[in-house]
Amino acid sequence: MKILVANLGSTSLKHSLFRFADNGAELLARGGFERVTDYSDAIDRCLAELREQGHVGSFDELSAVAFKTIMAKDCCGCVRIDEEVLAAMEAYGRLAPAHNPPYVQGIRAFSRKMPGVPMIGLFETAFYRWVPESFRRYPVPDSWRAAGVERYGFHGASHKYIAERSAELLDRPDIAERARRLYVDPPKPVTGKPPLRVISCHLGGSSSVTGLLDGVAIGNSFGMSPQSGLPQNNRSGDLDPFALLHIMREKNLSISEAEKILGGESGLQALSGGLNDIRDIREKALAGEPRARLALDVFVTQIRHWIGSFHLSLNGIDALVFTGGIGENNPWLRAAVCRDLDQLGIVPDAEANEQIRGREGWVGASGSKAGVLVIPANEEIVVAREARRLLSARAVS
Predict the structure, then answer these.
(1) Is this structure's pTM higher than 0.70?
(2) Sheet holding 216-220, edge to edge
(3) If we measure between CA atoms, which residue out of 324, 337, 326 comes closest to residue 372?
(4) How far, rounded to the nearest angstrom, does the alpha carbon of residue 151 sit from its chain's CA centroid?
(5) Using N-to-C axis directions, what is the helix angle for 241-250 and 255-264, rounded to 10°?
(6) Would you state the pLDDT for residue 395?
(7) CATH number at 2-122
(8) Could you tell me where the beta strands, DSSP code E, fall in the chain?
C-alpha cells in the first residue's frame, strides 16, 4: 500500500510518499515545490519526480492521497473527502484563511487528476476531542456555543507525534501505544503506573504549545482559529476582543480590513517592523535593533506563559519537548525559554543544547528533574498512518 501525503500552501506543494507493509511504514520519497501558481501543474511535476525516482509508475498505484487538513464545520477526525467535506471546509474558510482555501483548491485539483484515488483528510482538531470541556468552553452565551464558538486546538498531527515519540524516549511504551490509537479507541484510565506529563512546544512559522497527560492532550494554546494563541509569523495570536472592536471604531475599519491586518500584517511581522522570519529577526536583534529584540521577547514570553499554564495543570512535568522548524534549529531560543526555570525542574545543558540542531536529542542537564528534548516534527507519518487505518477499516467493513 502506497500513500502520498500532500501538504498544501497558498503557493506551495510538499509531498511525502509512504509504503506500508506488515513491518510498518517506509518513507520512499519527500519533495516539494514553491511559488506554485497552478496546482494541476504542480501535481504533474510531483508525479514526474516520483516516476523518475522509480517509486510510482502512475497515480493508479496509490492507495490514497492524504492531507493534513485544518478544520471544517461539524467535521472532525480522519475522513474520506468528498464534496460535502469540502463544503464544510469552505464554511470555515474565514476562520482559517491561510489554510482552508488552498487545501480546498488543491484537493479538488488532485481529485480531477486522479478520480479513482481516495482523498483522505486528517483534521488538526481531531487530537483535541478528549480535551476537558472546562478548557474547551468559552464563557459566552449558549447560542454562540451552538454556532461553534469554542477552543478547537491545532497542530494536532505534530503534537500527536510528540505524544508517541516522547513516551518511547521516556520508556513508556504503554503510553506511546495509547497515543497511537487515540483516533481508534477512547483513552482508558492508566492504572498501576505514575502519570506521564509532557509539554510539547511546536515552534515554527505557526506555533503552539500543548499539554499532554498520558499521551492525551489536555489543552492547546490555539483557540477557535489558527489566528489565536502565540504570536505567529504574520498573525496576531491572542488579542482582547474589545481591543478589536475599539480599533475598528477608532480607525473606521471594515471587517475585511480588520481580517487582513490580523491575519497577514500582525504577529512577529508587526512587532519587528516588517520581518516575519525568525532568522532575520534574530539577526537584526543581535545588531541592536530594538523592535526585533521586542519581537523575540514577546514570542519567548508567550511560550513561557503557556508552559507555565500547562505545568500547573499537569502538576509538574516529566519532559519539555521542542519541535517544529524554529524549535528544532535554534538553541538560543530554547535557552531563552528555559531560562531560570530550575524551580519548575527544568534545567537545560548549555553545551548539549548548542549541539542539537535539526535532530533528535536530549538537551537537559543531568540534574534536571524534567527531561528537555528536541524531537523533529513528523506530521506526515501520523497523517499516513491514520489514512491507512481508515482504508483498512473500510476494506474490512
Answers:
(1) yes
(2) 216-220, 208-213, 197-202, 319-323, 371-374, 361-362
(3) 337
(4) 15
(5) 120
(6) 61
(7) 3.30.420.40
(8) 2-9, 12-21, 24-34, 64-67, 78-80, 119-122, 197-202, 208-213, 216-220, 319-323, 361-362, 371-374
How many Å apart are CA 97 and CA 90, to the nearest integer? Answer: 10
Nearest-CA neighbor of 210 among 329, 278, 138, 130? 130
Class of domain 156-379: alpha beta
17 and 27 Cβ atoms separated by less than 8 Å: yes
**What are the phi and psi torsion angles at 54 (to 5°)?**
80, 15
* Residue whose C-alpha is closest to residue 179's, from 202, 198, 201: 198
> How wide is the angle at C-alpha 202 spanned by C-alphas 200 and 208, nearest 5°?
90
Cα 5 to Cα 46, 50, 202, distances in angstroms:
12, 13, 20
What are the backbone dihedrals phi and psi of residue 220, each rounded to the nearest 5 degrees, phi first? -145, 145
State residue 397's pLDDT score.
47
Euclidean distance between the first and the last CA atom of the chain, given in angstroms as a whole number: 18
Residue spans of the domains in the chain: they are 2-122, 156-379
What are the percentages of helix, strand and coil residues in the chain, rounded to 5?
45, 20, 35
Residue 39: per-residue pLDDT: 87
pLDDT at position 58, please? 84
What is the Cα–Cα distance from 361 to 89, expressed in whole angstroms? Answer: 37
Q: Which three cell numbers stand for residue 109?
A: 485539483
> Which pLDDT score is estimated for 380?
96
Segment-wise mean pLDDT, segments of 10 residues, the chain, 397 residues = 91 92 89 88 90 89 96 95 97 94 94 94 96 96 96 97 98 96 89 95 96 98 96 95 97 97 96 96 98 98 98 98 97 98 96 96 94 97 96 70
Cell of 245: 472592536
For 346, the grid coordinates are 527544568
212 near 162, Cβ under 8 Å?
Answer: yes
Question: Is there a shared CATH topology between the 2-122 domain and the 156-379 domain?
Answer: yes
- The residue type found at 10 is S
| Grid cell digits, residue 272 | 519587528
